[in-house]
Each structure stands twice: as structure tokens, then as C-alpha cells.
Design a protein that fits this description.
61 residues, single chain, mainly alpha
Length: 61
């Protein structure tokens, strides 16, 4: 990954904060995205995977 984990986390939090649900939902979504990425195989774009998972998780709230 070209960015550090802390940089990616900040980016994912900014994505999540723009979605409805509040801070707790945003934090849960980001945590879930990183866990899913860790368990995934053959991910072409880790950053894209994180953004998509975070947005989907916040949209489901």
C-alpha cells in the first residue's frame, strides 16, 4: 500500500463521517473494512476495497 495504515484510517473516517449514522457507526464501519481487507485474498486495490466497504457499511446503517 502506498499510504500508511494511519493515513488510510483517517481517509476512511472522512468517508464514513459523510454518511448518516454518527461517529459510532463511522468507527464501526472503518474497523469492519480493515478486518474484511485483512481476511480477503487477491485484492487488487486495498484502498478501493476499504472505501467501498466503509461506504457500504455506513449506507446499511
Amino acid at each position: 500500500m502506498s499510504e500508511s495504515i494511519s493515513e488510510l484510517r483517517l481517509r476512511m473516517m472522512s468517508v464514513a463521517y459523510r454518511m448518516p449514522g454518527g461517529v459510532a457507526v463511522a468507527e464501526d464501519a472503518v474497523q469492519d473494512a480493515f478486518l474484511r481487507l485483512q481476511g480477503a485474498s487477491k485484492v487488487i486495490s486495498p484502498e478501493g476495497c476499504l472505501v467501498k466497504t466503509t461506504a457500504r457499511r455506513c449506507g446499511a446503517a
